[in-house]
């Protein structure tokens, strides 16, 4: 806190900013890289929520999540970055693509991808973005992250803090993952009393093994982590 | 690095996800937008943890630990959510959340009795297109 306080005081004083602390007009290389990757990430996220082709939305989501992993690397949080690549790009997007295929999403353009309230949604989102950006910029105008020195999120640091201070939540999380696995199997299992729908039996037989295999891959990834 | 960069990017990503949740009609696209919102929160947590771990003398790295927990919970959430979407699609023949109006109040244009043939035709259409 003391460093941030001094830096904040330096930056708040307009006379000493020119020499003392960095400014907006002379961004460092890390800041430029962060800005460029951030633009790519934001653009991919916008395309994800606006495109009319469902599979393309999932693929643009890969770009957005990968860009966020690069942002974590730029913030020296290496372990989080690789966990992001493993879990999100590796398993969550694959699960989403499985879901799109199992629900027989149309390949190509679907005209009804957006619902009728998209203008209300756009208004709400733009208002929320304006309010949040204004508040955040106003609050952290004079705050700087010191990225020099040892990395704040290397595997050694993260593992030490995780297994020294956060062991009990970690174990509780494994119970939650087990519950989620059992719940996903129970939900995607075909009920026995459903035999009246013999017309769909073949498609359900096709659905069930894939739906059962998905939580297993996820738990394997979690276990490897 | 200026702390405003990751904070502003996180706010923009969150609002993008908010737009997606409100405007999308397919349930799986809504889940994708929820993932975007969760990732925005993760970026915020990581940025503030890096800032505080350099500024403070002693830190628990609570931001990064919470980010890891959020990622694991998001993985569990997407598994359960997709299982629910698949069950709904199997029963109704659609994953269109505008048509799932069984608990809607007010103007009963599509009640349970008029709704059943509609979903039936939707299921037939899904079968026909597949």
Describe the model.
Chain B: Keywords: Cell membrane, Membrane, NAD, Oxidoreductase, Quinone, Translocase, Transmembrane, Transmembrane helix, Transport. Chain B: Pfam families: Oxidored_q2 (PF00420). Chain B: InterPro entries: NADH_UbQ_OxRdtase_chain4L/K, NUOK/Mnh_C1-like. The complex is a heterodimer of chains A (225) and B (130). Chain A is mostly helical and 225 residues long. Chain A has two domains: 1-112 and 144-150, Four Helix Bundle (Hemerythrin (Met), subunit A) (Up-down Bundle); 166-225. Chain A is built from nine helices and no strands. In chain A, helix 3 (29-50) packs antiparallel against helix 4 (54-74), helix 4 (54-74) packs antiparallel against helix 5 (78-102) and helix 8 runs antiparallel to helix 9 (201-224). The longest helix of chain A is centred in the middle third of the chain and has 25 residues, at 78-102. Chain A starts with a helix and ends with a helix. The model of chain A is unreliable at 6-20 and 204-225 (pLDDT under 50). Chain B is mostly helical and 130 residues long. Chain B has a single domain (4-98), classed as Helix Hairpins, CATH 1.10.287. Helices cover 75% and strands 0% of the residues of chain B. Chain B contains four helices and no strands. The model of chain B is unreliable at 110-130 (pLDDT under 50).
In the predicted model, the low-confidence regions of chain B spanning at least 5 consecutive residues are 110-130
Shape of chain B: elongated
The SS-based structural class of chain A is: mainly alpha
Average pLDDT level of chain A: 79
What's the total count of β strands of chain A? 0
CATH superfamily of the largest domain in chain A: NADH-ubiquinone/plastoquinone oxidoreductase chain 6, subunit NuoJ
Enumerate the spans of chain A where pLDDT stays under 50 for 5 or more consecutive residues: 6-20, 204-225
Rg for CA atoms of chain A:
23 Å
CATH architecture call of the largest domain in chain A: Up-down Bundle
């Amino acid at each position: 806190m003391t460093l941030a306080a001094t830096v904040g005081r330096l930056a708040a004083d307009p006379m000493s900013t020119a020499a003392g602390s960095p400014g907006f007009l002379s961004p460092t290389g890390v800041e430029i890289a962060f800005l460029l990757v951030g633009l790519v990430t934001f653009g991919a996220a916008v395309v994800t929520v606006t495109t009319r082709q469902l599979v393309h939305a999932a693929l643009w989501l890969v770009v957005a999540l990968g860009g966020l992993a690069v942002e974590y690397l730029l913030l020296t949080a290496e372990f989080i970055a690789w966990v992001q690549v493993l879990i999100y790009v590796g398993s969550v997007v694959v699960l989403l693509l499985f879901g799109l295929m199992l629900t027989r999403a149309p390949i190509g353009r679907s005209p009804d991808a957006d619902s009728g309230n998209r203008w209300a949604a756009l208004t709400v989102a733009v208002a929320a973005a304006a309010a949040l950006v204004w508040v955040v910029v106003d609050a952290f105008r004079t705050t700087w992250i010191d990225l020099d020195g040892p990395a704040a999120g290397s595997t050694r640091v993260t593992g030490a803090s995780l297994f020294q201070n956060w062991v009990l939540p970690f174990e509780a999380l494994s119970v939650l993952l087990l519950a989620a696995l059992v719940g996903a199997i129970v939900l995607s299992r075909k009920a026995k009393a459903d035999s009246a729908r013999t017309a769909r039996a073949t498609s359900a037989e096709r659905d069930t093994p894939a739906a059962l295999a998905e939580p297993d891959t996820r738990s394997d990834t979690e276990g490897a982590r | 690095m200026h702390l405003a960069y990751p904070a502003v990017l996180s706010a923009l990503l969150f609002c993008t996800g908010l737009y997606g949740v409100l405007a999308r009609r397919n349930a799986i696209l809504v889940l994708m937008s929820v993932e975007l919102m969760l990732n925005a929160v993760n970026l915020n947590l990581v940025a503030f943890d890096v800032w505080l771990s350099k500024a403070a003398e002693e830190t628990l790295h609570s931001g990064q630990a919470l980010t890891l927990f959020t990622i694991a919970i998001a993985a569990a959430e997407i598994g359960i959510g997709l299982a629910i979407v698949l069950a709904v699609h199997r029963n109704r023949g659609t994953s269109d959340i505008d048509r799932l109006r069984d608990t809607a109040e007010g103007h009963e244009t599509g009640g349970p009795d008029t709704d059943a043939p509609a979903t039936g035709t939707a299921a037939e259409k899904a079968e026909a297109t597949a």
